[in-house]
Every structure is written in C-alpha cells, then in structure tokens.
Amino acid sequence: MNTLTKTLLAPALLVITFAMAACGDSTGHDDHADDSGHSESDGHDHGSAEADDHSDAGDAHGHDDGSEDEHEEHGEDVVKLSAQQLERAGVLIAPLGGGTITTHLTLPAEVGLNQDALLHVTPRVPGIVSEVNGFLGHRIEKGDVLAVLESPELGETKITYLQAVQSKAIADAELNRQLTISRNTQTLLELLGSEPELDVLRAGVADLRIGENKGRLLSAYARVRAAEANYARERELQKKSLSTESDLLAAQEAFNSTQADYFAAFEDIDFTYQLRLQEAERAARVASSSVDNAERRLHLLGLSDEQVAGITDEPDVAVARYSLTAPISGRIIAKHITPGEKVGTDEAVYTIANLDTVWLNISVYSQYAGQITEGLQVVVHAGDRTTTGVVDYVSAVVSESTRTVSARVVIDNQDRAWKPGEFVTARVETGQTPVARVVPLDAIQTFEGQEVVFVQDADGIEPVAVQLGRRNDVSVELLGDDIAIGAPVVVRNSFLMKAELGKSAAGHEH
C-alpha cells in the first residue's frame, strides 16, 4: 500500500472505529456525534455542520436526512483529489485518442544452427593422421590447419606435377632456341636473295646462330657462284676459240647442277625452319597444358595457389604431407579424428559452425499457418533475454510428426546469448489495425461488476462503463462513443481510483 492510499484510508478507518464504539455503548452518542464528520482529505466536503446534525438527530448512528441528501447531491462514485495528490501518487491523466492495435501470435520455437553457415569438413585425399591441431570448441579462422595427413595419393600427384613442370621448362627452352634459329634463318635467306658477294655474305652472317642450315646454305651458294664464274669464263674462251665445245658444255652443266642444288637447299631450309618452329610451339603448349592439369588436380585436393607454387621448393619428406585446413571461420562443434587413424574421403572429420547468426525455428500450428507470412516482425523471449527478427522463410509442408509448419527467423548472435537447442517463445506480429479510441490496459478496471475507465470532469474523477474491442499485451480498443475523443482519462495507476471509491463506500456504511 503506497503513501497516498494510507493517507486516504486513515480517516475512514477512524470513522468506522468510532461508529462501532457508538453502536455498542448507548452512552457514547454525543462523543460519536462530535467525531462523525469526514475530513477534507477523503474527497467529501460535508463540513462541521454535519456533526451538529448528527447530535440533534437522536439516531443510533448519528445520521439524519440532511446528510443523505448531501451525499446524493455529490454522488458517491466520484474521486476528488487535487492535482498535487495525483502527481504524488503517480497517476497520469491523458486525453483519449486513437492509435494502432498490433495483433500477434505467441508460438513455441527452438534455436538452431544456421545451416547456411554450417560446414562438414572432409579430407580430399585418404591418408594416415599424423597431427591434430583443431579440437572441440576451438574458435578457428579460415585457412587454419586442423590436421595433417600422410597421403600417398597426394605424393603421386605432386610428383606428376613436378614432372610436368620440368617438361615444360625443356619445351620452353627448345621453343626459345627455335625462335632464335627462325629469326636468323629468315635473315640469312633475305641476305642470299640479294645475291651478295661471298665476302659480304660471310660478314653479314658471322654472328647469326642458325646451326647446320647456315653451313649448308653458304656451301651451296659458294658452289653456285664458283660454277657460275667458271661457266662465264668458258663462254669467253669459246668466243676466242681458246676452249672446246665440250668444256663449255661441261661448265654449263656444272653451273646448272650447283644452281639446282642451291635452290633445293634454299627451299628446304625455308620450309624446315618454319616446321621446326611450329613443332616447338606445339610441344610448349602441350607441356604447359600438362602443368595446368596437374595443378588443377592439386587444387581439387585442397591445395591453394601458394601451396602449389611452393611444391618445387618442398623437401622430399614433405611430398606426401596433406594439410586439412578450415574452409570457413567459426567454432568446431564436432570432431571425429585422432592421430594414427586412417581417414578417407567419404566421412566428415570436423563440423564447423559460424555462430554469429542462428536460426529460430518457429512451430506454427496448422490453424495459424495462414497468418504467418515472410516479412513479419518477431519478438523472441527466453528468461530475461529478448531479441527481434523477421520471418524470412515459411515451409510449404506440414510436419508429419508435429503437424506444424516451420517458420524461420535469422537472429543475430554476436554475443553468443542464444544457444542452439534451447526452447524459447516467439511472438509474431500478425497485423496492425488503426482504431479511433485506444487506452493502455492499465487504464481498465473492474468496478461493481463492470469494466470501467476513469474519466475526469468538473466534479472529479468518476468511472465510466466501457465495452472493449481488440487488444494486445499493452493496449485495448474502446468501442462506442460513451467517452468523447479528447476526454481526460486515467491511463496510469487507475487502480488507486478504484481503491479510493472502495474506501469512500466503506466510510458511509455505518
């Protein structure tokens, strides 16, 4: 009982005490008459004249007709308190107005793991466990080494990769050699096309690296020039009758023969150097493709680009070592691996969960399924913990075992307050309805068998019977127009008004 209630009830209790004493002792009427008047603090202003009326009446209880008329004039169901008294008691009066009634459903729910942030870690290769670094409950980051295996399959794949790298290096070197030969051969052929003197030709090709083709072309060209010079000399001698016809024909035949050999060599070398360049390019492409394929196989086994690049520098003892790394950041919630154990590629050895978010799985009874849709606001309660979320998925299938529909809410769990597996209560806001008159639930009281709201007017604060409409946990709609919009109503601590009326009624029942 607060201070205001004690203050208001004290005079009434005194009145009742004196009235009982007067009724029990016939000699005490005068004393009773002197003290029967109500004090001003109880809200009734009867004055000292009422005490005189009591003493003149000779009634056993000291009441006369005049006091009853005065009670009827003021009305017994009116609370008269000053603004200071209302303020001290924490009573709040506000004008009646409209608002929104938010309807909701309260449903059971279970906190679960976010299946979109849950990962089962399985080795990419079979092997024997040599090290275990990740343990149950550990917080791990993406890329952390969970365990190390010795895997012959991985070792063979690495060896294939190394062989491919070596083959590519050889093919690339051969391609570079053929490119050099090709450029130099092209230069030589262009120079020969200008039919230079031998001294000029030797000087122009001295620094060109061509290989056997260089000597072959230079020799053929030198023989052609020599045969050509001999043929020219024989022609001059024949004109001077200093040479026989047979010598001229022999020189001509030699010239034609060496010229044919030179042209054949020229064309063969021109074709050959291009062919060899094409073969070198093809071999380099094949070698490069082999390296790429071997690298892809290593990536399929879980090796990163950095790990693949470091294979060429690995010691031989590490060729079969396989590091099982964490694909995501999170916490290890399951572990099925021990040192010395043989593991395969068909069973998960770790389960990692990112607990920054969790799923709230709401069980929606079939009769409410039509009211739950995606996008609805949800308030979650568990003890003194509360959080909010939004329905982001509603199942289209009714569970055969529970006969409920599952609705899902993603809840932020950065503080790890929500534990997967715990049961909570979910309040789903199913709609909002605007109403013309709405008051807090605290404004409603039951008085003389009716639900009432206390309304302030010129005479004081009096109860007005109301009809209630839609409601939620905090407010309720008032139906009808018994109370005008804008009328001042008690919206907080209205129970004190009811207590005051009860005290006043007890003070008059002598």
Describe the fold and architecture.
β19 and β20 form a beta hairpin. With 510 residues, this protein is of the alpha+beta class. The protein has 5 domains: 3-72, no CATH class; 84-99 and 434-508, conserved putative lor/sdh protein from methanococcus maripaludis s2 fold (Beta Barrel); 104-116 and 354-432, Elongation Factor Tu (Ef-tu), domain 3 (Beta Barrel), CATH 2.40.30; 118-151 and 320-353, OB fold (Dihydrolipoamide Acetyltransferase, E2P); 167-296, no CATH class. The chain is elongated. The two termini are 24 Å apart. It contains 11 helices and 21 strands. A 6-stranded antiparallel β-barrel has the order 2-11-14-13-12-15. A 4-stranded antiparallel sheet has the order 3-10-8-5, with no helix packed on it. Strands 7-6-4-9 form a 4-stranded antiparallel sheet. α2 (29-35) runs antiparallel to α3 (49-57) and α8 packs antiparallel against α9.
